[in-house]
Amino acid sequence: MNAKTSAFIITFLSFFNPVSVSYAQSSTALPKEDAGDSSGSSTLMVIKRESTGKLSELDTPAAVSVIDGDDFRNSKAQVNLSESLGSVPGLQVQNRQNYAQDLQLSVRGFGSRSMYGLRGVRIYVDGIPATMPDGQGQTSNIDLNSVDRVEVLRGPFSALYGNSSGGVVNVDTQTGSQPAKLEAGTYFGSYGSFRNSIKASGATGDGTHAGDVNYLISGSRFTTDGYRDHSGTQKNLGNGKLGVRIDDASTLTLMFNSVSVDANDPGGLTESEWHDDPKQAKRADQYNARKSLDQTQVGLRYQRQMSENDEFSLMTYHGERHTTQYQTIPAASQKNPLNAGGVIVLERKYSGVDTRWKHDDQLGSVPFSVTGGLDYETMTERRFGYENFNSEGDLGVKGDERRNEKNVMWNLDPYLQTTWNLTSRWTLDAGARYSTVSFDSQDYYITGRNPDDSGSRRYHKLLPMASLNYAVTPALNTYISAGRGFETPTINELSYRSDGQSGLNLGLEPSTSNTVELGSKWRVGNGLVTAAVFQTDTDDELIVAKSVGGRSSYTNAGKTRRRGLELSLDQQIEENWRVKMAWTLLDATFRNETCGAGDCTPAGNRLPGIARNMGYASLEWAPPEGWHAGADVRYMSDIEVNDENSEQAPAYTVASVNAGYRFNWSNVTLDLFTRVDNLFDRNYVGSVIVNEGNGRYYEPAPGRNYGGGATLSYSFE
Q1: Using 50, 70 and 90 to split pLDDT, how confident is the model at 601?
Q2: Of 58, 63, 476, 582, which sees the most CB atoms within 10 A?
């Protein structure tokens, strides 16, 4: 792509108005299911789909990767998404070894600054967002035991979601089918790790007749003592799906999910602490830092084929999440009357509805499809803060109240996306979404030295996208895409002001990103080769302004730029061999001088939390029965830990191997496996806490560790 082409696309995007903001004294769209696919396969983009109704990697004119559910289960612990997403270029996912803080996941560098949970990337499970309206998400409710496929869209190239710049990770769980099947699995590994699971699935009929029913229910329990001190965890997870065909044209699907986690929080280490003893967690032991959460949600999806050319879908859901977290904030810091304490208690209720209509037609000789809809999401949060000590001086216990507020967020997003098959080779996709995100806070903790901190903020943004695809041959496509994404501040980012004064940080602006991408995809036999180059320019990037006393405040950084190259290969060799390779080059820098916590970051500094180079390669031997084996290697270049680029987590390369044996006896299958991770016992930092105010940036990864397991299944044929 030459400079003139790039300039033309950016100029085209600039015609759309920038963010408009309204104040008051007083999030986001999601890829939902295609109405024609009762299995629940999602629509990241209303573009090309395979005959199965599922997203086509080859024909979608954007950087898309699809990972089959079996890849998350074969010879794996089935605990974290990080176990199987290394083959996706542009996706940086790291296991913190801290189940109180979730995985650290970023796409093209968006989300890397998140100190806990997920940021900058939209997450969906069976069409229900795991990302709240303000953009904060989590992966704790994803049941890998029942995953059917995971679709990763990199970049803002769909009008079907909003409030994100990095992209979308969409998880579809399995749909029951004939014959009925019962499956039990177990895994055991180093550091006292155990996971036991059970799954049942089946169907009556083939799903094409009125009254046909399909079902799947899955449950698991995971426990571990943890690699680090004070990192033990217990996690119970359940997932279910019940579908019924109402008549020849419509289906109804009920989805249920529940998760309960009790996890200790070891916290981060300084560089010297990491070198001295990577397992230590002295401060966490002192304050008994920990987190517990319970979340239950239910969703209902109605799909109807209105006519030969029209499809309608309605998705609605409701969930509740309760969280209690004890932090390592010193008592001295909490003496400030504006400090919110060292214990956080959250009670959240969230719900939403998405209505969607798809129409296929023809204008002259040009076939086209139009998808339009309206998405509404809301969340009500009661947030309490307490001191983490009592009058007797005991630490790690709930003390006096220091915070009490009610936060209400909602978003309302109409959207439209079209696909035009201009010729047998040229396809044009275009769409837009108008996103409105509202935040309102009512403060109930008001004292003589802690005034009323109530307030509200509302953001509006038009998000256009366009993509042009050229089919060089039936097996080779090239495309060029342009799109806009934005991220609003989360509740936590609005909670504290950098000047130390009371009140919400209502001066924060949302960050806005314009992306241009050029890519190509080539089907080679039973394999797929992909390549993409992109540039993303962001205004008002949100960064940490100050992090002291266990609290972080944020500011807008001005301008940043991300330029990258993504390459991948997924190749089936003969019948039983499979090779995967991926490489990512990502240059992410500040474009102007940025002043945060007293110091100024010069232009040209690297954005923290982002590896400049990532590499992955795996080789798998996987016959349907008998011996199977595999090996993989991952490379991560050094990562800056703060805006000043004064310290780095060093580069590392780690390897894993696995082997097993699969028995098939009539209706019974038994799969046994064992694996070794970090084969060469590398001492490395698995993830970093960006801009941690005390210099405790480093979260160490375990050395060489072992695991093994078995899966026994019975098919009722």
Answers
A1: confident
A2: 63
